[in-house]
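Task card 7
Instruction: Convert sequence to structure tokens.
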Amino acid sequence: MKFSNEYLRLCLITLEKLIFNSPVLPGNMRNNDYIKAIAMGNTLTQDSGFIYKQLIPTATDEDIKMLRVRQMLLQSVVIMDFYILVNKNIVLDVATKEEIRILNQIKSAHKKGNDFSALIRNPNNITELLDASHIMNNLSFYDKALAYLLLDEEDMEIISSFNSFFMADYLEHSEKISPNFIIKQIFRSINKTNDRIASIEEAAEFLVNAFYGDVEGIEETVVDIINFTESEDIMQALVDENISSVAVHLFNYYDKKTNDGPKLK
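Output:
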């Protein structure tokens, strides 16, 4: 079976639903914290998979072995997702103390040979870690692109050391920001949603965050917007993090770019 981070996130959702809907667990045990704890840890595969066989009576020893592999891989996915999302929050200056605490634990565990067992066993970490994978699974195109673009070389080296599927994800989601990137994404969004205003406002929010995070390619893109709109006012709007004002300039830019420039295919 071919594993990927996306596949493993789907496995997490399936596993949580299986546990939540199981008639063999008492009602007071079918709560979010308990579900997350046993979905995240190795509890299901302990004692020859006793709990898993209670959930699925037809489960074989081979099924238990496969589940053990999936849970080990799943742990690397949720830690990766948490790292990527919290790193973005830190760069944008919106991270919580709790997020920073857990991220520091991840970095400390990395220095000790990527031994995340203590991190996983800590019940105070479970919800934060698993929620990160649920969030990552539902991120918008722009939010996901920004999260990957805000990683530096050290971040990438750390994540790659414990998640072998990371680079495939990074290459898929970290397309460099450029004028063509912005125009194409607005064009695709309008075609998909038929909502021109929302599509451009979403791109404007992305530009504000990318500008704040000083993402590679943002300067080139802003210069192109200034050249086409013949106004430098967007610079102040970006500095002020005024999404509405940036959107106004982006409307003008998109119209001139798509009318005056080469037609998009």
